[in-house]
# Entry
Amino acid sequence: MRNPDNKQNQPVSKRGENGARVRSKTKKKAAANSIKIPVRPEIFLYFFKDQDFDGINNVEVAFTDDTAIISGTANKLLMTINFTFEVKPIEVTDRKVIFKVINMTPVNQDWIKKAIFKKSTFLTYNQGKVIMDLNAFEPVRQFPFGTFTLCEIKDDILWIGINL
# Structure
């Protein structure tokens, strides 16, 4: 006869200490056991400088707090216009990081978005979100296996977590 207090009789979602769910503990352990790959702003800058953008110059990338800032100058009709994209990572899916555009100056200049994101091999823009393909980065490409679980900006570095 089984003991009614035996944890084996409890549903999986109710097992654990102090009523904590096993699934939430498993997620925390998985995040703690993931390999974290640092991606510095210089790597982003390398990809921007490597590509030929018509009319886009002086591109700079910086990480501050929990956001990434992409800035530079765009030339149109003999005018030089400074631009800035402030983006924040919100989701990781299929070896891609999805950033939400928090702030953009000048506001809604579609021609700047097209000039940057149409020719980029690792960035795309869709409805207020910037999608970055992580396979473009050599440190990430060295791990063709695993699931991406984490993307956060800490200490001016973008950290990407891979569960094996």
